[in-house]
């Protein structure tokens, strides 16, 4: 049987399974909650509850009643591998956090600062070498290349050379992200079918000779080999506890009763997790920060003056935490352009969902809590939460960094990455934005049509369908 026929067979089997289960399903308990009508009996027919209510959001994200759904499990395990921290639960999740968190402690992140600054200077030099000043260019690629280099230099102590334009890891990682980020009618249907495909069949589909699957397998093989290479290097040069690296903390000690670390086969899983999370989310967020600065020349100039003042006072030893406008711009960009616009959870049992504000149902009655049945899929709408006027004020849709500088703290708290890696990502953004604004003036080209678009994360797309952020760049006089 040819590869095409095998793929067609399994695809048809998945569709049949999904349709059969949909026809057998009963009416959802959320059927009286207002929402858009389904445009198709296939696409969008499954009942999903979209939640941005602050009380309900907190309950869902912190309650053991809700867990990642079967589709998320299959997708994450196929991309990262089994045992990844995104899906780890309870004891194993605590075990992984105990391994990883020390690498991203405040002290260790501060020790990474010289490496981050070095990549920042390489990024500025790369723009000069490519002849960016005086032209309009897509800045997203170099932002992702810089983010990848930062992962390599500061976390893995391994050069990826993304900013040279010659990095094989950068090329294959971009190919993977573009593959998994593509959205089409067939891909939407496959996503809907994932929960109903038996695991053994799903594992077989990952061996099919399909270009997208080949790309993913190449990436898995490359990162597994990278993990083995890094582990060999660490074993030959094991450092003291004080100077241990991220990889050395992952390595399981030789003693048979050792509980620290992970097995060698799992090191590649965590290498992929850090690489993809670090490059994709940080690269995209950096791109959005530059876009908003190009859109707001007054804020850009004020930030440039803050950078110049900090440099005059401290030279190369800038205290980035003491730059209020820089941090306000980063926070406001993260609020408006959440790297993860929504996250899915599934109820493990029946429960009552609390609400901070009443909802009017389609029958006209008001409810202050909502019954949720076991198996109900829920989307926590992070982007919607970040634009609630009840939390952020009547100008919640506007880019206004000053909301983070006012005497009264914001009612809202931005939902975003947690602890550990986030400390490092924040420092990346502080340093790279500072270096760029110090050196270049950013502006939007005439007829700018850039819009946020949800893929694997939130990406930029122009009116002609190209995934890019065109920005005009000039040198600071």
UniProtKB/TrEMBL annotation:
Sorted alphabetically, the Gene Ontology cellular component annotations on this record are: membrane
Its primary localisation, in coarse terms, equals: membrane
| GO MF terms held by the record | heme binding; iron ion binding; monooxygenase activity; oxidoreductase activity, acting on paired donors, with incorporation or reduction of molecular oxygen
Annotated pathway, please? Secondary metabolite biosynthesis; terpenoid biosynthesis
- Name what cofactor the protein needs: heme
The residues the entry assigns to the signal sequence are 1-24
- What keywords tag this UniProt record? Heme, Iron, Membrane, Metal-binding, Monooxygenase, Oxidoreductase, Signal, Transmembrane, Transmembrane helix
Family annotation (Pfam families): p450
Q: Where in the cell is it found?
A: Membrane
* Family of this protein: Belongs to the cytochrome P450 family.
Mind telling me what this protein is named? Answer: Cytochrome P450
User: Which source organism does the UniProt entry give?
Assistant: Mycena pura
